[in-house]
Design brief:
The chain has 262 residues and is an alpha+beta fold. The chain is built from 7 helices and 8 strands, in the order H-E-E-E-E-E-H-H-H-E-E-E-H-H-H. Helix 4 runs parallel beside helix 6.
Length: 262
């Protein structure tokens, strides 16, 4: 009974792997039940090790033994490796963006309901883009990164207040087609109608309307199936998320630069 109490099973997505000593790795997993979990994987840096497959972008299940300072990962089984996303810079950058946001947002030992399933869904969608034409892949990966960022921030308690003016409380109903209308983005406060001091971006009505639709499950598309909004608009929304991360999380994910350059 005592031995059983010292072991548990953990299922999650590996977000990060760092060297630990000469042969081991320190893994950070995103688990539906435990939030972020840090585990030592003994001998994982040896090519012959059964734990060598425990690397970032791998969805796995493992037996965990309680340790004095770090719990230790034992036998593992791999559900799926998303390592193929590294074949293209755009899919890799989008995947890294997802992982970094989770590392910034999710507390150790505190689960965020639905987050693991969302991340796995987005990784599946990114993987499906590997067979797409380069221009389509780049646009779709960028849009998925922006939508995922909005949704992950919402789940993590740092959602963008997209539906009311942060100063007047007035409902934000962007008048699409009115090209003179503007909304200020003020990271410390939210969104405010009209040009305002302290704004880092001004969104037009179409841009704000697009942003508001990103809380829905599917990406916004036209009747012909193509994405709403050209790449420069999605890039502006990505820049907005970068400002929001810097203000509320204290750091902007490094993958943001990759997403802009791919």
């Amino acid at each position: 009974m005592m031995a059983a109490a010292r072991e548990r099973e953990v299922t999650g997505l590996c977000l990060r792997a760092m060297a630990l000593g000469e042969q081991d790795r320190l893994l950070t997993l995103l688990s539906a039940e435990e939030g972020l979990v840090r585990l030592a994987a003994s001998g994982a840096r040896k090519p012959s090790s059964s734990l060598a497959a425990a690397s970032p972008l791998t969805h796995l299940r493992g037996q965990v033994k309680r340790g004095r300072s770090l719990d230790r990962l034992g036998q593992i089984s791999i559900f799926h490796s998303y390592g193929r996303l590294g074949q293209q810079l755009d899919t890799l950058a989008a995947a890294q963006w997802l992982l970094e946001l989770c590392l910034l947002l999710v507390p150790l030992g505190q689960p965020v309901e639905g987050l693991l399933n969302l991340i796995l869904l987005r990784l599946d969608q990114l993987e499906a883009l590997l067979i797409a034409a380069p221009e389509q892949r780049r646009s779709e990966a960028l849009a998925l990164a922006v939508q995922s960022g909005v949704q992950i921030m919402q789940m993590g308690g740092y959602g963008l207040p997209l539906h009311s003016d942060c100063r007047s409380g007035e409902q934000l109903l962007p008048p699409v087609g009115n090209w003179s209308w503007r909304c200020s983005v003020i990271p410390a406060e939210g969104f405010c109608i009209g040009p305002q001091p302290g704004a880092v971006l001004l969104l037009n009505a179409s841009e704000l309307a697009l942003l508001q639709r990103l809380l829905r499950p599917q990406l916004p598309r036209r009747a012909d199936g193509n994405l709403m909004g050209p790449d420069p608009v999605w890039e502006r929304l990505l820049t907005l998320l970068g400002f929001w991360c810097g203000e509320h999380l204290g750091r902007t994910p490094r993958s943001l630069a990759l997403l802009r350059q791919d």
